[in-house]
Amino acid sequence: MSHQRNYYQLPAPCIIESGILVNKEDIKRLINDLTQVRYIHSLDGVIQNQGQGWILEVFNDSTQATVVINNSLYINIQSFDYLQLNQVSPQETYFDLVQDNRKLTLIPLVTSCQEQQSQKNLEFDNLEEMLGEVLSAKWDVQLDEDF
To answer: Residue 106: CB partners within 8 Å, gap ≥ 6?
Structure first.
């Protein structure tokens, strides 16, 4: 009998670029990838606050608040009913965290792919600079020894 039940089990949802997520762990995983964002907080469609900030923590705890202050965002996914993904262009998706008449829109300023590429570029640039300094120091030592 359990074999038949598994046969009729629906597959897990698949969201590509746009859609609605209700599973708290899916929401947490998605928001955890964001770093720097532009945020817009609205009630009944009227903007209350907006700004830019860094997502410092994403957690799932029914006893704690979501806090946005001093360019820092601490997001408790329990503060929201669902997350809606909205695609603006093939490269841009923004996130609406929704709870009744409240919406916290998160617009990524840097995607995780861009951040990783930037980090790789910085690492390469640092390595290249250090190598240049080592070679320069070695040449200086050789010149000093020649005199």
So the answer is: 31, 34, 37, 38, 39, 55, 94, 95, 96, 97
Assess contact for 93 and 23: CB atoms under 8 A: no
Kind and range of the H or E run holding 137:
helix 112-146
Q: Chain-centre distance of CA 147, in angstroms?
A: 57
Q: Is the predicted pLDDT of residue 142 greater than 60, yes or no?
A: yes
Q: How far is CA 11 from CA 4, 14, 82, in A?
A: 15, 9, 20
Instruction: Kindly report, residue by residue over 26-50, the tens digit of the pLDDT.
Output: 999 999 989 999 999 999 999 999 9
DSSP β-ladder status, 72-76 and 67-69: antiparallel
Q: Where are the domains of the chain?
A: 14-110, 111-147
